[in-house]
Amino acid sequence: MLKNNKKVKLEKNGVRKIHTPLGKLYVLSTEIGIIKITSKKNIENNSIGKKHLDSAERWLISYFNGSEIKRPELDYQNMTEFQKKTLYELMINVKFGKTVSYTELAFLIRNRTAIRAIGTALAKNPWPIIVPCHRVIKKDNSIGRYSGIGGKMGKKLLLEHEGVEIFN
């Protein structure tokens, strides 16, 4: 489609802007589920996956009010089996206010030698907060690295919000 001699990008994802204590977050959805959460500005479009956008907004509001409700459906279609397993086990087993080390997460996924691969899978987590990679810390209880929204300060804010005492 051309408009003013420029290509117009056809939308393939729904987008919802949600205000949080971390700032504006943009939740992207497909018809299958939530595909990404980012702080990078996107133009809102509620026409694709609206029920998933509604669910994600309710979940984020609940989370920042101190509890977690049923998570929105997530769209795993662009992930490896290892990434799916790692993120799923983290989401199911490490609850609000709890943390896990990279080594402990390796035991949860039944792959004790995958510590570095776990770090890579967490760094590529498209659903920060919903899939709580901020709850993964170093063995010495220090905060470690974080590539999610807000970087290391975002991780610190999320852990403090959950009542986790952290060491740096």
Could you walk me through the main structural features you see in this protein, from its secondary elements to its overall organization?
The protein is 33% helix and 16% strand. Helix 3 (102-108) crosses helix 4 (115-123). The chain has helices spanning 50-64, 81-93, 102-108, 115-123, 151-161, and strands spanning 2-3, 6-7, 14-20, 23-29, 34-38, 100-101, 136-137. It folds into 2 domains: 2-64, no CATH class; 81-161, Arc Repressor Mutant, subunit A (Orthogonal Bundle). Strand 3 and strand 4 form a beta hairpin. Mean pLDDT is 90; it is low at 1-10. It is built from 5 helices and 7 strands. The protein is of the alpha+beta class and 168 residues long. Strands 3-4-5 form a 3-stranded antiparallel beta sheet, with helices on one face. Strands 1-2 form a two-stranded antiparallel ribbon. The longest helix is centred in the middle third of the chain and has 15 residues, at 50-64.
